[in-house]
Each structure stands twice: as C-alpha cells, then as structure tokens.
Write a structure and sequence with these properties.
The structure is a homodimer of 148-residue chains. With 148 residues, the first copy, chain A, is mainly alpha-helical. The first copy, chain A, is 66% helix and 7% strand. Chain A has 6 helices and 2 strands; from the N terminus they run ααααββαα. Chain A has a two-stranded antiparallel sheet with strand order 1-2. In chain A, strand 1 and strand 2 form a beta hairpin. The longest helix of chain A is centred in the first third of the chain and has 28 residues. At the A-B interface, helix 1, helix 2, helix 5 and helix 6 of A face helix 1, helix 2, helix 5 and helix 6 of B. Chain A binds a DNA duplex (30 and 30 nucleotides) through helix 4.
Chain lengths: 148, 148
DNA sequence: CCAAGTGGTCAAGCAGCTTGACCATATAGT
DNA sequence: ACTATATGGTCAAGCTGCTTGACCACTTGG
C-alpha cells in the first residue's frame, strides 16, 4: 500500500472519529445533559464499572492527576459524579457516578447507536460488524489519547 | 446491534484514531521536524494542493479565522509555510507550503504508512483495504473536527 | 517507628482558542 | 460612477483546560 493510500486511510479514519465524537456529544446534549464535553465521556467509561480514584482516571486519560481532579470537580459540580471515601485506603477517594451520571452514560450509548445505525444503512449490518471487529483488533492499549 | 456494541465500536474507533494521531506525530518528530503538533497536519492537508487563504483554512479546521491566522503564524515562524499576496484578490493572502513544509508532509505520509503496515500485519492487506474503503464511505463531509 | 512511596489538593503559569473591534479591499445596487 | 454592504485579515483582551511545582495526609516496608 502506497504512502498516499495510507494517508487517505488515516484521513478518513480521523474524519470519522471526529464526526462520531461530535455526533455523540450533540446527541447527549440533545437528551438534556448540558455542559458535557467529549472528554467527560472517557471519564465516564472509566468510572462506570466500579468507580475509580483520581490517579486511576489520570492514567487512563493520559493527563496529570491535577487535571483529572479538576475534571472530577466539574463532574461533581454538575451532578454526574461524587467523591466517596475509599473503603480500603484512607488517602484515596473513590469517584463514582451518580444516578444522573448513569443516565448520561446511557444517553451517550443511545447517541452512539444512532450514528452506528446510519453506518449500517450505508454499509450494511454485516460490514459494520466487520468494521467493529477489525477496529478492536488494531486498537492500541494504554491511555486514551485525544485524536488531535 | 445493541447500544453497548455500538459503544464498543465507538470506543475502539476513537482509541485507534487517538493512537494513530500520536504515532504519526511521533514519527514526524522522529524524522527531524520539531515543534509540530497534530493540528498542523490538518492544516498541511489543506495547504498542500495549491495553498489556501486563512479564511479557507479556518473553515476547513472548524475554528475562527483568528485561530487559523495564529496557526499560520506559527507555521511561518517554524519555516513550514509562507504568506504570499493573493494573485486575484488584494485583500487576501495565499498561504503556501515551503520546501520544508513539503518535506514534513512526506514525513507524515511515511509515518502513517508505517502504522498502516502494522495493521496489515494484524489484519492482512486485503482487510486493510476493506477498512479504508468502508471508512471512506462513512466519512462525514464538512470541517475536520478534533476527536475530543 | 521512621523513611520512603503514593493519593490528593492548592496555586501559579501557559497555550490555544474565543469574542469584539477594526481596517483594507471587493462587489452589488442604483 | 458612487455609495453601501460584504468579505479577508489582523490586533487586542479574555477564558478554559491543561501543565509544573509545592505541599499535606496516609500507607508501606525495613
């Protein structure tokens, strides 16, 4: 594959990713969750299962813990998360989603599903599944990184 | 396709996009182009064919023209682009890549190709081409948007 | 039980964006 | 041809989300 083809693939991938992010964000806002930014979604993904510490979150997002702490401040202020004492470490605090935080997470899933349905209309359900499987196979590990 | 599957697809896509951006950026820097940020790549893509005005660039990047102008300042200061009088409009200025700007563009293509080759190793050449075609079909038009 | 390590916050600074105001040139209407 | 409006671009000020640096509270290991 030539360099220019690799560039075309890259550009398409980044355009799709950017569009998806925007669409999910708009969809979440349209469902009544104001003041939510794309970055919050990645925090939600880490907090959802069982909560997480600020340091955990920072590592997951690839930012300093101060930045992660600030982001948690914002989520708390907006009612999406709360800080609880950590059950096993008195230094740490466990950040968990509130009911509204869970609602917002579900709204994001719905918004994502809406976009993916459109892709299904363009490619067919089968190819969308193929796409998902291929992306899962090449997805890097490590911290989530902004696409630019 | 369930919402959670759509979310898995979305997360994988964004992870791949973030990783790709990072890898290209690192690759460009490793080839001797310092002080380059991912955002510059999208500017290069617009400037490369025949140059562009600041307003053009702003529309393409989805930012204000002031922000685009600032970005051009930076590219000029670093030797990647230059402002020329516009041949058909005395108000406008045509921003074009310098030789070094073209070199940097080629470096980005090489870096992208390197990553895509790795994907080829994981998926096979055939599936990478399929991936490219599918992404091109679902890629949105309009301005490039940061993935978050 | 003390030394080093780890979780977290406070404070200051900075980079990249925005909004608002403005000038120069182009274009359209009469 | 002349004026009114639109468009390309810049200057200036301000904001937001991040960083670095300093510090405290608690934990862990010799």
């Amino acid at each position: 594959m030539q360099n220019s083809e690799a560039m075309a693939l890259s550009a398409a991938l980044l355009a799709v990713a950017g569009g998806l992010t925007q669409r999910i964000n708009e969809g979440v806002i349209a469902r009544g969750f104001e003041g939510v930014r794309p970055a919050h979604g990645f925090a939600f993904a880490r907090l959802a299962p069982d909560g997480a510490t600020v340091t955990d979150l920072a590592a997951h997002l690839g930012v300093t813990k101060q930045a992660a702490s600030q982001l948690v401040d914002e989520l708390v202020r907006k009612g999406y998360a709360e800080r609880r004492p950590h059950p096993e470490d008195a230094r740490a605090r466990l950040v968990v989603l509130t009911g509204r935080g869970w609602d917002c997470t579900r709204a994001a899933e719905e918004a994502a599903a809406e976009v993916v349905r459109e892709w299904g209309g363009l490619l067919g359900e089968r190819d969308v599944r193929t796409l998902r499987d291929q992306l899962l196979r090449i997805a890097p590990h490590g911290p989530i990184r902004p696409a630019w």
